[in-house]
Amino acid sequence: MIVDIDEALAKSLFGHDDNAVGIESRYFKGMKLVEFKTYMCLICGWMYDEAEGLPEDGIPKGTRWQDVPLNWTCPECGARKDDFDMVAI
Ligand SMILES: [Zn+2]
To answer: If you measure from the C-alpha of residue 83 to the centroid of ligand 1, how many angstroms do you get, rounded to a whole number?
Structure first.
């Protein structure tokens, strides 16, 4: 899924890349900006990184959190998506 972000925001992200805490920003083809976020399991602290996906669970790199299947569970403790929260790192 590709998300359009307005130019000012894109500039601020790329102009101050070091300050874009918690947001890993990359350009994909067609000058579309994609933000990859990281989600953490609130039960055990395991992290899901959208940029990395979870290939061993059949979730390809770049899979957005909302596209992770609802029946997916934390590989560490079995918590459900509801038990995850977006984190800034
Ligand atoms: Zn967990």
So the answer is: 8
**Mind listing the pLDDT tens digit for each residue in 28-43?**
445 466 789 999 999 9
Q: How far, in Å, from the CA of 24 to the mean position of ligand 1? A: 22
Measured in Å, residue 40 CA sits from the centre of ligand 1 at 8
The confidence band for 2, taking pLDDT boundaries of 50, 70 and 90, is: low
The Cβ of residue 73 has, within 10 Å, a number of other Cβ atoms equal to 14
Burial of 37 (0-12, 13-18, 19+ CB in 10 A): middle
